[in-house]
Amino acid sequence: MLGLVKCEQICKIFSELKKKKHIKAIIITGSGKKAFCSGQDLNEIKNFKSKNVNQWINEFKQVYIAIRSAEIPVIAAINGVAAGSGFQLALLTDIRVSHAKARFGQVEINSGVVSIIGPWIIEKVLGMSKTIELCLTGQLIDGKEAKKNGSHLPITKIIDVYYEEIQKRGDNRFDTSSLISLLK
What is the pTM of this model? Predict the structure, then answer.
């Protein structure tokens, strides 16, 4: 789950990685076998007050800035469900690779929560029509459809998700930082 504490941790990690010039790419993946990221920690919004909205939005904004301003490629190795803010997190990366059974979507509406930031990110990758569909239906799409709509690259076997991009990108001997920063 992606909550305020995790957001702070992600920002700290990306800040530290900027200082390590020997790192040529960042690969983000889930820690288990079922999910890349199941989304927002809904326990955080149980007692949510309107006065906290700006702080909450700013925490997520900082994660988005950290990922999008990385001067090296950021790759999502999606090993399962990427829902809600987890889907948004995946879409912020430069390259997304998954397997056919991975599932993606903007599911907040299923919990009675309005997606505030998600549509902006999703629309940049999938276009307005698909964004509206995903946000209003709460449906999940699978890896095959994600590849078909252009949001994800190769479909691989589940175990290969972790290693495919490492093998392709890990031995990158040229400095891509100036090129990457121009592309983002």
Answer: 0.78
